[in-house]
Amino acid sequence: MSEPVPSTDEEEPFDPPGPDWLYRLRQRFTGDSSLRRLVWRVIATTLGVGIVLAGVGMLILPGPGWAAIFLGLAVLATEYAWAHRLLVATKDKAQGAASSVFSPENRKRTIVLTSIVVLLVAAIVSWYVYHYGWTFSGALGWFGVD
User: Fold this and answer.
1) Residue 134: domain span
2) Which residues contact 36 (CB under 8 A, 6 or more apart)?
């Protein structure tokens, strides 16, 4: 048989989920009431899922879709461990991609691709201004709105 691990008097410091101000607000609102904790969790879940669904809609419609999805995940991460893990994993992937793009090995490629994109956008804007001037009547005409 294995011996039980002796307990230590040192406790790990408590790290609340989410920002400290949100944790303090939640503690002030909920107190010791289990009903209030349930209401808080339902509100956070509803708000988080609503923001994520709006973000998914904005992937098709105009709007900051990915930003809304990540904001909704951040709201859900204040209540659910799975959302917190998903948010941390996504943040790590994004930071890894950014460090890869800006690494010295990829610097030339990044500069060349950025230059190509800037020149392409400048060519499209120049073509539009040449044909239609500085108005949106040309683009609105494509949709039958004059």
Assistant:
1) 105-146
2) 29, 30
